[in-house]
């Protein structure tokens, strides 16, 4: 356990990272810090959805959370811990999962199935994809409160899943088949 005291409070980092296998990604911001209500946030992040059927994984996470609090003698209230019961949130895609928000000021590593780095253009991690993730638990205690968070170290694409964002449906009858480039040019003139 590493402990740092700052002017704002005490920051504790667990000694080891925790791997998570085959969890679902939600709200990935792996290459750009997200903008919420017009304000760019100061951290990269992702929400991890862990199926409730993964009882061993959930028990391991809960044990690590409890051990870190005991090690540093800092008690964190349940509502300030990053691991939440998804059935108690207002998001339908969280039902049947435990939900964990993981963030980092530094950009996390993003890897493909061969452990090769992935560029933003080639990234297949989207809301609903299955991923492997590496996190490190941290505790912050200061004047603004006490929080137990997950620091995002990296993610690896595992497999495709049903997208949470859905798709836009379109009626093919709304479009004509264009026979030649002249018709395309006429369309472009019309739309100009």
Description of the molecule:
This protein is an alpha+beta fold. The chain has one domain: OB fold (Dihydrolipoamide Acetyltransferase, E2P). 15% of the residues lie in helices and 40% in strands. The protein has 2 helices and 11 strands; from the N terminus they run E-E-E-E-E-E-H-E-E-E-E-E-H. The protein has helices spanning 55-72, 181-191, and strands at residues 2-6, 9-13, 18-29, 35-36, 39-40, 44-51, 83-85, 97-104, 109-111, 130-142, 145-159. Strands 3-6-8-11-10 form a 5-stranded mixed β-barrel. A two-stranded antiparallel sheet has the order 4-5. The relative contact order is 0.22. The model has no long low-confidence stretch (mean pLDDT 86).
Features:
single chain; 192 residues; alpha+beta; OB fold (Dihydrolipoamide Acetyltransferase, E2P); 5-stranded mixed β-barrel; two-stranded antiparallel ribbon; 11 strands; globular
């Amino acid at each position: 356990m590493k402990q740092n005291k700052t002017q704002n409070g005490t920051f504790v980092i667990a000694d080891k990272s925790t791997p998570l296998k085959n969890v679902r990604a939600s709200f990935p911001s792996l290459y750009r810090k997200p903008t919420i209500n017009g304000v760019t946030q100061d951290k990269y992040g992702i929400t991890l959805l862990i199926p409730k059927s993964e009882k061993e994984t959930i028990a391991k996470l809960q044990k690590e959370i409890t051990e870190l609090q005991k090690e540093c003698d800092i008690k964190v209230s349940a509502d300030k811990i990053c691991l939440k019961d998804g059935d108690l949130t207002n998001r339908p895609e969280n039902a049947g999962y435990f939900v964990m928000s993981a963030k980092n000021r530094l950009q996390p590593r993003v890897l493909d199935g061969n452990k090769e780095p992935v560029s933003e253009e080639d990234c297949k991690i989207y809301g609903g994809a299955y991923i492997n993730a590496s996190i490190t638990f941290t505790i912050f205690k200061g004047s603004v409160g006490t929080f137990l968070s997950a620091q995002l170290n990296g993610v690896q694409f595992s497999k495709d899943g049903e997208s949470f964002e859905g798709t836009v449906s379109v009626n093919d009858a709304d479009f004509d088949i264009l026979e030649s480039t002249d018709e395309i040019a006429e369309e472009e003139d019309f739309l100009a």
